[in-house]
Design goal:
GO terms for molecular function: nucleic acid binding; zinc ion binding. Pfam families: SF3A2, zf-met. It is built from 3 helices and 11 strands, in the order αβββααββββββββ. The protein is an alpha+beta fold and 222 residues long. It has 2 domains: 73 residues, no CATH class; 95 residues, Sandwich (Immunoglobulin-like). The strands form 3 sheets. Strands 4, 5, 9, 10 and 11 form a 5-stranded antiparallel beta sheet that branches. The longest helix has 19 residues.
Length: 222
């Protein structure tokens, strides 16, 4: 664009462009850039009508040439209509059903009764610390199964009225029934004094639970 003889301009240089002229120059540069980078054949809203002009099917506007249409696509009106159309399509999209989870086959075992057990009260002769040693016998345990154990609070079980002075220690191994022991609700010493051992040869499971040092007011009930 020639600004040679505009007011405020120096001889031999371009004149000072007005805001309108700068806007025209900007749109022209955007149009040239769009012509080089945009394939109109892939634009779903670009259409050439029967009289040789171009239409924007989204905004319902007419354009004399491709450059005019491309300049329109960079404008606020076209961009706002694109955003509204995307939001509408998103809201109308049906919810997809949740993918089905892979079915996990649950192993079923025929219970054969309770295992044999032995509980031994222990006391460290030096410190007086108290512990319990559990021995559970599983002679008919299922191949590939290892015994399991966990602690249960008095409020988690539903067999006896909850009593905060007690907790329960459970042992489970298929095909035997799960058994539980009622022990004092004291803090367990999780150092090397707490240990488990599964003897695969004798089919015996051992667990020792030691309590941190404090007075034991009541004896454990089994």
């Amino acid at each position: 664009m020639d600004f040679q003889n505009r007011a405020g301009g120096k001889t031999g240089s371009g004149g000072v462009a007005s805001a309108a002229d700068a806007g025209v120059d900007r749109r022209e540069r955007l149009r040239q850039l769009a012509l080089e980078t945009i394939d109109l054949q892939k634009d779903p809203y670009f259409m050439r009508n029967h009289i040789g002009t171009y239409e924007c099917k989204l905004c319902l506007t007419l354009h004399n040439n491709e450059g005019s249409y491309l300049a329109h696509t960079q404008g606020k009106k076209h961009q706002a209509n694109l955003a509204r159309r995307a939001a509408k399509e998103q809201s109308e999209q049906p919810f997809l059903p949740a993918p089905q989870k892979a079915a996990i086959e649950t192993k079923k075992f025929v219970k054969i009764g309770r295992p044999g057990y032995k509980v031994t009260r222990e006391r460290d002769p030096g410190s007086g610390q108290q512990a319990l040693l559990f021995q559970i016998d599983y002679p008919e345990i299922t191949d590939g199964i290892a015994p399991r154990h966990r602690f249960m609070s008095a409020y988690e079980q539903k067999i006896q009225p909850p009593d905060k002075r007690w907790q329960y220690l459970l042992f489970a191994a298929e095909p035997y029934e799960t058994i539980g022991f009622k022990i004092p609700s004291r803090e367990v010493d999780k150092s090397e004094k707490f240990w488990t051992m599964w003897n695969k040869d004798t089919k015996q499971f051992f667990l020792q639970v030691a309590f941190k040092m404090e007075r034991l007011d009541e004896q454990p009930y089994y």
